[in-house]
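Kindly inspect both lines:
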Amino acid sequence: MRGCERGGRTCSRGSDGGFVTAETAVVLPVLVVFAMALAWGLLVVAAQIQCVDAARTGARAAARQDQADAVAEITREAAPRGARVTVSREGDRVRVVVVAEPPALHGLPFEVREEAVASVERTAGGAP
């Protein structure tokens, strides 16, 4: 930069080029990690919503006194892939629990869980 040096001073023109490159090198990976975390968070929320819907669907089917196999199948169809479904009856109530791992980052010990409880509907004959 021979043309910029005059009297022991340097020109400011072009001297910021290295700083911009360094800032970009630091900020760009941070933005990529932030975008990936945001996408993963959205996938987790979507899996949670699927678990909520599946548990409610299963509880409604169990409350109608559908067969246990049919209730589990209906719940699995609405749940995320690989979800565990538990159907139980406690007195005049049914409880359906859906547990699933989020679709991304399977190595983390993290899972979404939802349960729904419904009262058993009475049949036309009056027996539960």
Remarks:
- The two ends are 91 Å apart (CA to CA).
